[in-house]
Amino acid sequence: MAEIVNLRKARKQLRRAAERREADENAARHGLTKGERRRLEAERAAGIRHLDQHRRETED
Fold first, then answer.
1. Dihedral angle of Cα 21, 27, 28, 32, to the nearest 10 degrees
2. Model confidence, pTM
3. Which domain of life is it from (predicted)?
C-alpha cells in the first residue's frame, strides 16, 4: 500500500526547501561566508577594545 501523505505538509516542505535554496544562492552571490563574518566581527571588536583601552580619563 502507498503511504498516506499530508499534502499541506508536503507543500510546506517544498516551499521551505525552495526558500532555503534561494537564500543560499543570495548569500553566495551577495554575502560573506559565516567564517568571514565572524572574523570581521572579531576584528571590529578588537579594534574598538583597543581604542577604548587607550582612551584618556577626563577629570570632571
1. -150
2. 0.49
3. Bacteria
